[in-house]
């Protein structure tokens, strides 16, 4: 048997029990640059994984790419290698007044429109963040918005045409692509999980032309830098993480 797992190419055993997961491999690298003694421990396709320490606590930083199915592969292999607490750091579109570019959103739960978790468990099963993860993230970012987010497989503004009036009325505050997959996976495995998201645009239909969507502006970059510190602080602060 190989010493590395087949999809992410991470070591089969012995990873730290805490992982920060992100979509973009370059974001994983950027986060790793903030760690002490960062080491690249696996790279394949969209998956790039590092180990290192944050404030003296060993952690993993790993990218999962775009969308729930591929992310699920990463979550499964990280868990096999020893991870027990996952926090997702990502970006999202705003669905609420007062939540603007660069703001942080802490997910308490997610709408399961991810295109994959219905193949894991009945659709009535909720996607909920572990309470300890929500508390740790809120402690690290008391200014952040908290609420329910919508995980949607077809998230791109260029293809998102589904009417969202019901979700807006139900006070869903942001839309992204992978979090409900993580939350359901973790709950089914008895693991801890949560997420903090950085707003990179307004996803409501009355707002500007979707072709103008640009997640690479300075205000978003500043939010991601803030959220990186928040997520790492929360990751080592989650109660019962080991």
UniProtKB/TrEMBL annotation:
Molecular function, one GO term: uridine phosphorylase activity
A Gene Ontology cellular-component term: cytosol
Domain Nucleoside phosphorylase: 18-234
SUPFAM superfamilies: Purine and uridine phosphorylases (SSF53167)
Origin: domain of life: Bacteria
Annotated EC: 2.4.2.3
GO biological process, one term: nucleoside metabolic process
Catalytic activity annotation: uridine + phosphate = alpha-D-ribose 1-phosphate + uracil
Catalytic EC class: transferase
InterPro entries noted in UniProt: Nucleoside_phosphorylase_d, Nucleoside_phosphorylase_sf
Protein name as catalogued: Uridine phosphorylase
